[in-house]
Structures are given as C-alpha cells and as structure tokens.
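Render this sequence as a predicted structure.
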Amino acid sequence: MKHRIAMWASAGFVVACCWIVYTFVTPPETLGVTLREPLIQALALTSCPISYAGRYFPLHFWWMPPINAATYALFGLIAEMLRRMVSLRMAV
C-alpha cells in the first residue's frame, strides 16, 4: 500500500511540474488567454487541485509540486482504503 501511495504522490508531483513547464513555455502574451479557455481551466483545476488556493492567496511556482504531491497522496490514501474495504467485503 505504501508503494501505491508513493506512486500517487509522484504522479501529483509530475502533473504539477508539467503545468509549470507549460506556463514557462507558453508566450506571456498568449498565456492569459489560453489559461482562461474553459477546457484548459477545467483540466488545470482537476489535475492540480492546489490551483484553487491560488485564487485566494499567492503561491510560488515551486511550492505547487510538493503541495500537489501531498494532495495526490491524500487522494491515493483514500482510494486505497476504499479499494481495500471493497475487496474485503467482496471476499466475505
């Protein structure tokens, strides 16, 4: 179970790093326009839930990967606990 939660956390770290690379690669004059498109915004808010907090207080770019990794680890812990409960219930 620890390995699966670590995989969830590393996935969250990689996703946040990809969003940071995306913001660095996109030209500044088009970045504001592309991040306001509904599909991109929905994808960003779904894959990087810490971006909700960026609406209320400023977050540094380099804080996002570890915080997103912790968020994904929490989601992974919940998912693994539910998976274990369902598998135990099915076995009985």
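Summary. The chain has one domain: 2-91. The chain has a mean pLDDT of 87.
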